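Discussion board: Methods & Data

I've been asked by a reviewer to show the raw model output for two of the constructs in my manuscript, not just the figures. I'm not sure how much to include, so I'm pasting the format here to get opinions. Each protein appears as its amino acid sequence followed by a line of discrete structure tokens. Is this the kind of thing reviewers expect to see in a supplement, or should I convert it first? Here is construct A:
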Amino acid sequence: MNIVDSDVTLRSKRELIDNFIEKSLLHASHDEDIIHVFEAYFEQEIGKALAALYSEERFDSIKLTGLLDNYFFTDVMPREDEVADTLTWMPKILERKSVRARVYDRVRDVIETFINGMRGF
């Protein structure tokens, strides 16, 4: 785990890697290809993370998926207002600033955990 702590791009993935080791890697048979086991685990975890985002923050799944796809291809972090535009509801005027910041942080966390540094998997 020293490698994870020393590499800046892996720090946001520490929990993901720890859970993979505990839940999947230790139970994998010797015949299984570790890359395929990780890919299956990764797809399952990103699905859970996105489902939680969609339901908890009430994002439009099509718009948010498009925003994440755009990031994947351009490597340009979406702006806070772009993320807010993917919500299916309009926050009250007094809550708007805090809601926009919260949802932006959650989307940024998903990007840092599941997209940054994960190309090739």
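Construct B, same format:
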Amino acid sequence: NERTLALQSLRDGRARICVATDVAARGIDLPSLDLVIHADLPNDPEVMQHRSGRTGRAGRKGVSVLLVPPVRRRRAEVLLNLSGIEANWGTAPQADEIRKLDHERMKDVLFTEDTSADDLELAKALLAERSAEDIAAALARLYRARLPSPEDIIDPGERSSSRRDERHRDDRTPRGDDRPERPRAKSGTSSKHVMGEPTVWFRAAIGRRKNAEARWLLPMICRRGGIDKRDIGAIKISDTTTEFEISERVAESFAAKVKRPDKEDSIRIELVTGAPQEQAPAEKRARAPQRDEGEDRQVVRRSDDPWKANGPKPHEGRIQA
């Protein structure tokens, strides 16, 4: 079956990576497997041990990596403690560290095997036409071409702590009745982004009446526009539409991508050509308009006797025999 074929591909080297659920991973026996990455935290210590046990089998050693966001660190520590595991905590490797390791791995690959006569003949032919530096540079390019490009990752712990510090500044002026409102942009571009960048407003054709919520709108916007959540500013959900800010830096490409048909949803997203719509609070919308104090009012009082309220009774004015 497919599972057997996949495991055989890993054993003979045709495949290097296996992505599996907890159920599919049960019973996997790969002695050469030396790295397990937990994409999310296990539900309990048993699952933790089961996942980690896929590596280091048959007396070998391996590495088990947990990807833990700051908000779930406490849960991860509890799982590790219940499992009897002492973990080494660290941040994700940065791009420079990855490049350095790539260079070391390239040396291991190039100089671990013996050189054949054909290899020497080809090397002499290349040296006759090019310098040794040009040949080495071309070899490095060929090696790097098959590797994914490393990226710098922002530490979420530092990011959240800086935001907390910003929110709790002592010199922040409290808003009062005499404090002027922040000026709004007259076009689709707002004054400033949350990170200090100019932004552009967009509108999605979905609102509260169709259960629109920011927790699923945010990943949908990122997927449709090919952007990161850091490029999204304020999100305002009204009854029938949702308006949100996009960093002006990526707004042009975002607008082009959201016009394409989407297989997962048919929510229309368009650029806001004017200022975002301001919607009155629910209390004000539900309240009836008030009359001026000096305006005449008609008061209709309800009588306890419905006949008196609606006219004379049917038998009044008649002579009974």
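Answer (T.O., handling editor elsewhere):
This is acceptable in a supplement if you add a one-line summary per construct. For B, something like: The chain has a mean pLDDT of 75.
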